[in-house]
Amino acid sequence: MEKMQVEKTASRGIAVAPVYYYQEPDLIPETGTVGEAQVSAEAEKFENAKNEVMAELAALAEKSEIFAAHQEIAGDFMLQEGVLAKIRDDKKNVQQALDETIQEIAAIFASMDDAYMKERAADVKDVGKRLMASLKGVRLPDLGNMDKESIVAARDLYPSDTVKMNPEFVKGILTEEGGVTSHVSIMAKSMNIPILVGVRGILGKLSDGVLVCMDAEKGTIAIEPDEDTKNAYLEKKAAYEKEREMLVKLRNQPAVTADGKRIYLCANVGNVEDIRNALPMMIDGIGLFRSEFLYMENTHFPTEEEQFEVYSEAAKLCPQELTIRTLDIGGDKELSYFQFEKEENPFLGWRAIRISLEMKDMFKEQLRAILRASAFGHVRIMFPMIISLVELREAKAVVEECKAELRAEGTVFDENIEVGMMIETPASVLLADEFAKEADFFSIGTNDLTQYLLAVDRGNKKISDRYDFMNPAVLKAIRQVIEAGHKEGIKVGMCGEMAGSQEAVPVLLDMGLDEFSMSAGSIDYVRKLVLEN
Ligand code: PEP
Ligand code: MG
Asked: What's the predicted TM-score (pTM) here?
């Protein structure tokens, strides 16, 4: 048995389960030529790999239509002929023939003018990866394919990995890299999965199937525990579950402080499923719908219609406020179908509202979808990463343009839809008094605000001790924003992870914060704190 004590993550929960070792295998093709005598054997290897991949994709296609599209690619004549010609005519071995053919087809798609066709390049590469894995006889990890309870151990997980996770099987997460406010931490918390990140050296100590105990709240890990240790963890797990039962009983009480102020407790979500999971916590609404996950889970920029379907379903599900944040892509969030230019400092680069204002047609599709959904509930629009009044006005003008179009088309929407903004840049703090005159509400995004105010990368483990939302500079900024908002009579909320922190909540209540929006897993704890303060 080996015990480890690591940094805590503000996540809670205890897990005892075998490890699912998540590692991308080596898919670099073996290069080389073959003699005439081996041509048919190489061609047969390709045929076998194709059949294996087609069967794999057929099973996956039942879960998502993305894989039906991948099936078509795998069975495509151009791919088949490309590989076979390179084996037959150029005498290349099958791995090199496949690699070159995939690169060629992906390049053809990438060079097309039509945006939809351009996006197919990523799908072609994805299918190429599957075929190469089959040729090499290695297993491609896919968190969506897990079928037994496990603790996932990985170097790091990206949002595109975590969106596939099924909480029924993922009982805990351990990563070597990553920080507390990296998106994997946020997503794990919203799914109530205990997580410990930045656990240096953990991968070297683990292998597939090894039994591990972890306590996310205390930051402890036991690898291959002895019977006593394992039982101690199982006992703590039972006690934790009992405490949760007590918290569940408090859900029927509205969150009112001792001096009578009604506090709004809302959830942060990334999709409709998250809303369903949050509703039992008796939430007062959705304070942050991270719309980028809808873009990230797709193979193309989702159309107005596709988005409308999701937002309207969300609005019908959640009759209270539903705050949809417009696309916040860039930074550490990428799209498989859109090539971002490499940037020196992605968090200071082309992200969020900067992209939306530049890609106006795409922005309008999203805004029209949100506006149309507003006919079905209390929908609010929120812009991320605003740094100037010019930006806010420009974004609001696009909303007005969309409203005018919908009016002319006779499409119903909420004429009085509230349009607010995130306060997550130092500039927006300093200009909060002016923004408060033009925005309908504020939501403080402390995940980014902390990194930008303190000049500390939110995902960099090496300096994570400096990433502290309780730093007086951050607290002073928050107080200033709440005062500025209240002076103009607008509601001030917070949707950064700080809103769910036991340490921060009493301080924020004291400052007069109106709304706390957080991962669903924290709501019960925050309700208890509000009732006690
Ligand atoms: C934030 O920055 O606090 C926030 C809520 O946005 P995200 O974590 O998605 O960047
Ligand atoms: Mg942010």
From this structure: 0.70
335 CA from centroid of ligand 1 (Å)? 17
Q: What is the pLDDT of residues 406-458, one digit of tens each?
A: 999 999 999 999 999 999 999 999 999 999 999 999 999 999 999 999 999 98
Q: Token pair of 399, please?
A: 């909303």
Q: Which pair of tokens denotes residue 20?
A: 């699912």
Output the CA torsion sign for 209, 212, 217, 218.
Answer: negative
Q: Could you tell me the distance, in angstroms and rounded to a whole number, from the CA of residue 500 to the centre of ligand 2?
A: 15
- In 424-523, the DSSP E strands lie at 441-444, 491-494, 515-518
- Dihedral over Cα of 266, 268, 272, 277: its sign: negative
Task: Compute CA distances 134 → 6, 44, 95, 126, whole Å.
Answer: 38, 13, 10, 13
**Is 458's C-beta closer than 6 angstroms to any atom of ligand 1?**
no
The Cα–Cα gap between 402 and 417 comes to 12
Ligand 1 nearest atom to the CA of residue 292, by list position:
9
Measured distance CA(2)–CA(221) in Å, rounded: 8
pLDDT surpassing 90 at residue 70: no
**For ligand 1, atom 8: residue with the closest CA:** 447
Q: What is the per-residue pLDDT across 43-62, written as a single tens digit (0 to 9) for each?
A: 999 999 999 999 988 887 77
The yes-or-no answer on residue 213 being catalytic is no
The three-class DSSP label of residue 71 is helix
Q: Are 184 and 158 in contact (CB under 8 A)?
A: yes
